[in-house]
Design a protein that fits this description.
The chain has helices at 38-48, 62-65, 68-79, 93-97, 99-106, 177-188, 207-213; strands at 4-11, 16-23, 28-32, 51-56, 84-86, 125-128, 131-137, 146-150, 155-159, 162-163, 166-167, 196-199, 205-206. By secondary structure, the protein is of the alpha+beta class. It has a single domain (4-213), classed as Metallo-beta-lactamase, Chain A, CATH 3.60.15. A six-stranded mixed β-sheet has the order 6-7-8-9-12-13. The chain has a five-stranded mixed β-sheet with strand order 1-2-3-4-5, with helices on one face. The longest helix is centred in the N-terminal third of the chain and has 12 residues, at 68-79.
Amino acid sequence: MPQLKIAIEPVTPFRQNCAFIWDDETKHGSVIDPGGDVDRLLETVSKVGLHVDQILLTHGHIDHAGGAAQLRDELTLRQGAPVAIWGPDERDRFLLDGLKTTGEGYGIVDARPFVPDRWLTEGDQVDIAGHRFEVLHCPGHTPGHVVFLDRQMGFGIFGDVLFRGSVGRTDFPYGDPEGLLSVIREKLMVLDDRTVFICGHGARSTIGEERRSNPFVGKAA
């Protein structure tokens, strides 16, 4: 099994965790949720010597997807071949369509709308550096939010669904607080306690830690 390496680069004023995941031997891997600050992301790619196979998106919010189109174009030029964007679920299309307008409101001037090369749905699988990740549709924060899970390795990228000690915001017109808690309990909290996950913001955590201490979904709920 390829040995994964992981680097996190917080980007934009929202300090969103853009993740780089790659095989340390081949240097092939993926970038997940490039929200912005693309020049810094390209520096990380160069430092690692990373060949990006695809860009993956958990959802369509500006701080997770705002830099995706620019990063795709820059990597395509560098690598000499098209770099695809996969995800999120198509129910977040309206968020991707509005990236330019949303970005202008937050001072993220390089954001622009795009259509992913592949929409992702529940049950899809994506290959990240030789590891097979399952796609779970986890709406509530946004309608088309997905997470990426490698059950065998006990590792996931959860975006803005579940955080250390908290859960994703749902105070948007399209937010669904009950739906979010339901998918967390039914799809994520059933995982092994040792499952490690990267959050969209802040420190990583484990399912066991959230089961013990998260007031929204743990024993205190």
